[in-house]
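Exercise 7. Given the components listed, write out the predicted structure of the assembled complex. Treat all entries as one system.
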Amino acid sequence: MQVKEILLQKPDGQDIVAKGWVRTKRGQANIVFININDGSTISNIQAVVEDGVISEDILKKITTGACIAVTGKLVASAGAGQSVEIIASEIEVYGIADETFPMQPKKHSLEFLREKAHLRFRTNTFGAIFRIRHALAFAVHKYYNDNGFFYLHTPIITASDAEGAGEMFRVSTFEANKAPLAEDGSIDYTQDFFGRETSLTVSGQLEGELGALALSKIYTFGPTFRAENSNTTRHLAEFWMIEPEVAFYELEDNMNLAEDFVKYVIKYALENCADDLAFLEKRLLEEEKSKPQNDRSELSLLDKLKFVVENDFERITYTEAVEILIRSKPAQKKQFQYEVAWGIDLQSEHERYLVEKHFKKPVILTNYPKDIKAFYMKQDDDNGAAPGPTVRAMDVLFPGIGEIIGGSQREDNYEKLLKRVEEVGIDPENIWWYLETRKFGSAPHSGFGLGFERLVLFVTGMGNIRDVIPFPRAPKTAEF
Amino acid sequence: MQVKEILLQKPDGQDIVAKGWVRTKRGQANIVFININDGSTISNIQAVVEDGVISEDILKKITTGACIAVTGKLVASAGAGQSVEIIASEIEVYGIADETFPMQPKKHSLEFLREKAHLRFRTNTFGAIFRIRHALAFAVHKYYNDNGFFYLHTPIITASDAEGAGEMFRVSTFEANKAPLAEDGSIDYTQDFFGRETSLTVSGQLEGELGALALSKIYTFGPTFRAENSNTTRHLAEFWMIEPEVAFYELEDNMNLAEDFVKYVIKYALENCADDLAFLEKRLLEEEKSKPQNDRSELSLLDKLKFVVENDFERITYTEAVEILIRSKPAQKKQFQYEVAWGIDLQSEHERYLVEKHFKKPVILTNYPKDIKAFYMKQDDDNGAAPGPTVRAMDVLFPGIGEIIGGSQREDNYEKLLKRVEEVGIDPENIWWYLETRKFGSAPHSGFGLGFERLVLFVTGMGNIRDVIPFPRAPKTAEF
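Answer.
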């Protein structure tokens, strides 16, 4: 039985076996208390070893980090902090942990624990994070399944570049510096494994659209890659992305889906991870105490999550947002580092002002200038509301995180799409299959992408994205 | 409302809008019938267009493959084959499909459809396959979530080689043939993105074990890669694998988990995909008619699935299997291509004999010779039952598929594991983190891997693995 289940039992002296890793051992005269955790829950089960029951030989081996099985009787606990405990009659030591075990019971820095990513799951903080990560992932699948979406596994190795962006990892079986050459001196990729140049995908969207234009409602949930040399607390070279794509959805439907979806998964975590969230909230409060009063959050972690679940997201156009920003105090006082003008790509400082100062809630910005968005976004009819051409894009901005979702209605007009493809310099031959869906039974459709780690970051309240994925991949970082 | 939901409505002339792709249009005097499918279900909704209601201009555009929205009243259908239909009052054409649309209503070969993978989702067969694939994937997550497992995202880009196998895809940001050299003339990987040589993972197991030795029960479900030049109906270069890993599980628990799990997901498909499975069963029966009597399956698709769900898997050791094979008719008559002897890696012909002829049900083979299995498998105590040293391995063999699951109890003894690592020629420094888990709180643990596409192949009854993944990756194949 797992510790989580044992803690739910009604104690009446029944026989029980608890298996797990020793967190602490405290000795008093004639009695020893051992706290055991098996990762099923943040709580430990306490084993009580009365004098003479377990041999000194075995007791000596029971140190922090050791793995043991305790057999005994489950009784109500007299001590504070737990409702039940085990009166041990037998202990088996599966594996010892000598004094070189790095996770001794004291505070470790997150930096130190990142170097011990193979063991950090055994700490309270990382146990909580990865149980919450699981719950969020399951909530994603449950939400889409319950709403009639089909999970589509789009390819990881790809010969196309969804964003027209560039920074991709090359995938090859050529030996380094020994790729064969074609007659004209270029690399002869016809001899490579796939017979062409291939990379790791940056998005499953284009293939997702193929699925949506047949099955109506699909979503992806898989790894995506960026070979950007960004060593920040917000970027990973390998991260998981969720990309729903829906036929017959226009921009408004897409916004409704995004808001409903993200509220659902956060609510799911609130309902299913109460213990772990309470622990992380406490951890965060401790951490905040070391900050100056001004830099502390106005809301606690749980309050922040509840606030997002309970309030409507603000929906405004990019054009309206720029007007707000131009009239804002920081703009008047020239406190923004980047000047605001219609047509610029909004910077983090602008997004934060809108979300954290002006509206004080999540914001969905829509109808961005065409020139700062991807080629596949549907062009707005020119209705005079904006100074220049716009597209049906939407970005969902979250407090502390910034952009958590980016999406759009997709261009479904063949001629307009082809023109944009050519304008941005993509060879139409490379994505003939994508273009063909606009020739054969095209339909209005929309979708978005949510970076899963940014969601986990938001829900756990952690500050560094490397702490919410088991084994982070980043520049010069591929250990484990 | 999606077609699936419309078909469940009680028809009493209510207003309804159906959106989807035209499968067929049949005209009679004064009346036109249009069959529309939106991928939500294998069934179509029929729209009835009475004389003069819709302009000829619009009707002309409604051909197979066009995408339309039909507005009208939902009534009970007089015709055979559907219970409700829509009496159209208005039709909007979203996208036409001219006569070059490749999916015309006639039989297409699977080979042809593979070249049209961007459109094949719109056929009955592939609609059914990918809805079933979704249901199986959801069942996987639901099974593990309901049983207290945590979903662990193990890394895709890796600097280690879990199987010690070799055939991996290289991942790099070096320009082809322009990798910088170190002083000794070797490639200077310290200048590559990750500062070392990296590849695409062949398995998440080693990292999965790190999770299990802290969280107790974890599973992975993600893409894995093999750069094998195998152009077969059973191999892909990119495929999805499910790998549970459980602390405190021994081989027997591992077998119980594998059997319970695979039965659960097949049962889930039987209960949730009845329409699609019925369609694929019919398709298979048609296909079988063209085969000689002897080559036809004894069981229909549904009977085969029910048989697996309802019967215990046979569990025998490798040593017992070899004895059965040596005594078998094909061995006596020298009909096996490869001779059977203790110590050989069993060939497909041997596995098929055991599963399809001898036991006529799924078989779990255990306790294989150490020399033909991976370094991380736990060594059996020498109990004299086998002619040589064995490990606590298990392979689950399925009719028609062969090995669908491979797993083992893992070596948890540090010295034994280190010795095997060195024997097979892996540099211990490369997996120091893996070895360390056997130094600090080691525990008995077990796990297995299930190739998701092989499961989908089995459940759908399809013959080629490229037909059960949206966009297959194989030698010379990376289109879409």
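Discussion: Chain A has two domains: 3-95, 122-167+202-467. Chain A touches chain B through 106 residues (CB under 8 Å).
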